[in-house]
Write a structure and sequence with these properties.
The complex is a heterodimer. Chain A is α/β, with parallel strands linked by helices. Chain A is 21% helix and 26% strand. Chain A has a single domain, classed as Class I glutamine amidotransferase (GATase) domain (Rossmann fold, 3-Layer(aba) Sandwich). In chain A, the strands form two sheets. Chain A has a nine-stranded mixed beta sheet with strand order 2-1-3-4-11-10-9-6-7, with helices on both faces. In chain A, a hairpin with a 5-residue loop joins strand 10 and strand 11. Chain A is globular and about 40 Å long. Chain A starts with a strand and ends in a 6-residue tail after the last helix. Chain B has helices spanning 18-26, 53-68, and strands at residues 2-11, 41-49, 74-83. Chain B is elongated. The chains are: A alpha/beta, B alpha+beta.
């Protein structure tokens, strides 16, 4: 059966069409879910795309976490559903408490829009179940607040539970331990700052995002 | 009663503050010597309906913890400015 992926659209999202196209490119069905939706019934997976939800006023993700759909996303995640936050979507998931840590302004205070090399740290997540641990992927980044931060206790839990999903080969934004993406404890909720949906075809610079999208729509539940 | 409350949100100690660091680095070039430990933050002014100052501050801190700050990396303080 075709996997049905909902792409959440907040006022100010701007990567929803890229995310939907990437989902379609790996053979799944995509549909948009407006941020006022209160149910995710019928969906197998959900993506929170990049952009500037609610204008990023106050802090990225600070207002989006109060959109009605986020209650549904939290329930969906708690029930084991696959949830992926890309860039602004990652910021929303941390603000909502569905992922540990926080994203703060880049070290150097520069908006970064460039290719980045990522190392696959674990295959124990819905985003990397089909990726090879240790492999290097070229995926673009496009953010101002992408510096991953967390306290020592959280960091130790991330390491102990294998929740660090991707690391930058060359840390571009000052993230703690060069972390580019993390998962929740169960591995069914993943957030990352880089944009795998923009790395789907060699014609546009890289197709390294495919393995991540393929993993995600395969929806392999993680056993820990 | 209406109380004018000022809420200050700043990064927790130990959390890197690139904005504060950049400001601090710029100061000597502008002739400001001897300035250190610059930390950047946000300031909010709100009018709060409450029966006492203590209640007004309590409500302001509650909303600061829920919305104005991200408690993972930020801390908030509230003070009464004047009775509006």
């Amino acid at each position: 059966m075709t996997t049905r992926v909902g792409v959440v659209v907040f006022p100010g999202s701007n990567c929803e069409y890229d995310a939907a196209a990437a989902v379609t490119a790996v053979g799944a069905h995509s549909e948009f879910v407006w941020h006022t939706a209160t149910s995710l019934d019928g969906l197998d997976a959900v993506i929170l795309p990049g952009g500037f939800a609610h204008g990023d006023y106050l802090r990225p993700g600070a207002l989006a976490r109060f959109s009605p759909v986020m209650t549904a996303v939290a329930e969906f995640a708690a029930a084991g559903g696959s949830v992926l936050g890309i860039c602004n979507g990652f910021q929303v998931l941390t603000e909502a408490g569905l992922l540990p840590g926080a994203l703060q302004k880049n070290r150097g205070l520069t908006f970064l829009c460039q290719p980045s090399l990522l190392e696959v740290v674990t295959s124990n997540s819905i985003l990397t179940s089909r990726a090879t641990v240790g492999a290097t992927l070229s995926i673009p980044i496009n953010h101002f607040s992408g510096s991953y931060t967390c306290d020592d206790a959280t960091y130790e839990r991330l390491v102990a539970n294998d929740q660090i999903v991707l690391r930058y080969v060359e840390n571009p934004n000052g993230s703690r331990d060069a972390i580019a993406g993390v998962s929740n404890e169960a591995g069914n909720v993943v957030g990352l700052m880089p944009h795998p949906e923009r790395a789907m075809t060699a014609l546009l610079g890289s197709s390294d995002g495919r393995v991540l999208l393929e993993s995600f729509v395969a929806g392999k539940l993680v056993t820990r | 009663m209406k109380f004018s409350v000022v809420v200050e949100v700043s990064l927790r100690t130990g959390i890197a503050d690139p904005e504060g660091a950049t400001i601090e680095r710029a100061l000597p070039a502008l002739g400001f010597e001897g300035i250190s430990s610059v930390r950047a933050g946000k300031c909010f002014r709100l009018n709060v309906e409450a029966s006492s100052e203590a209640e007004a501050l309590e409500r302001a801190i509650a909303l600061a913890d829920r919305l104005l700050s991200n408690p993972v990396i930020e801390q908030s303080t509230a003070r009464i400015e004047a009775t509006a």
